[in-house]
């Protein structure tokens, strides 16, 4: 298994631990170029199949890194980024270095949290008023937020929030307060996640 599967990019961190990684790998470690480090495991292909199990392992590795040493920032990669050599991967790190630096600055010390607001069946709700009420509580706490798809007709809101780790408790309390305010709504609050929704870095084709 000479190829390298990439989970994400860290700044100046040396990471190495044993875990259930993608495609049966058991070790996660960093390959570095200057201060950037790609967190990788070994894999026998550059085109891995996205099974449910491996997608979960990808996310679990990211979460484990995020929880190290009181909170390690990592620019997450989407599932499937694999490269045939360390040299190729280091060339990618070199070429995308400015973009990774910008992304790292945006997410340093922050986590992604998700909130779906679902109306009870047959409930008649004022969507605009709900969006305004939720925004009034949560937007002042979050550093950024982005909308996600409304994939159900009962889904009133679906939004991701980038929140400073130090503000997590305040954000939790604000969501709890919102739940008490609205009788006909279900609040599905999830996270923390690696900040996929707030990172847009393309690192080139696998080769």
Automatic annotation (TrEMBL):
<dbReference type="GO" id="GO:0031411">
    <property type="term" value="C:gas vesicle"/>
</dbReference>
<keyword id="KW-0304">Gas vesicle</keyword>
<protein>
    <submittedName>
        <fullName>Gas vesicle synthesis protein GvpL/GvpF</fullName>
    </submittedName>
</protein>
<dbReference type="GO" id="GO:0031412">
    <property type="term" value="P:gas vesicle organization"/>
</dbReference>
<comment type="similarity">
    <text>Belongs to the gas vesicle GvpF/GvpL family.</text>
</comment>
<dbReference type="InterPro" id="IPR009430">
    <property type="entry name" value="GvpL/GvpF"/>
</dbReference>
<dbReference type="Pfam" id="PF06386">
    <property type="entry name" value="GvpL_GvpF"/>
</dbReference>
């Amino acid at each position: 298994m000479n190829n390298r599967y990439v989970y994400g990019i860290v700044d100046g961190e040396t990471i190495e631990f044993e875990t259930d990684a993608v495609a049966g790998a058991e070790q996660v470690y960093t390959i570095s170029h200057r201060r950037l480090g790609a967190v990788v495991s070994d894999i026998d292909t550059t085109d891995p199949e996205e099974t449910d199990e491996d997608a979960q392992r990808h996310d679990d590795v990211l979460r484990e890194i995020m929880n190290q040493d009181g909170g390690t920032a990592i620019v997450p990669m989407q599932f499937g980024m694999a490269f045939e050599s360390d040299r190729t991967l280091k060339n990618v790190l070199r070429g995308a270095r400015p973009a990774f630096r910008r992304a790292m600055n945006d997410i340093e010390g922050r986590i992604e949290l998700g909130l779906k607001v679902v109306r009870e069946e047959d409930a008649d709700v004022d969507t605009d008023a709900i969006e305004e009420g939720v925004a009034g509580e949560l937007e002042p706490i979050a550093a950024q937020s982005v909308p996600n798809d409304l994939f159900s007709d009962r889904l009133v809101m679906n939004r991701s929030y980038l929140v400073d780790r130090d503000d997590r408790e305040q954000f939790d309390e604000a969501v709890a307060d919102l739940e008490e305010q609205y009788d006909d709504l279900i609040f599905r609050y999830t996270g923390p996640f690696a900040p996929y929704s707030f990172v847009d870095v393309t690192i080139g084709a696998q080769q």
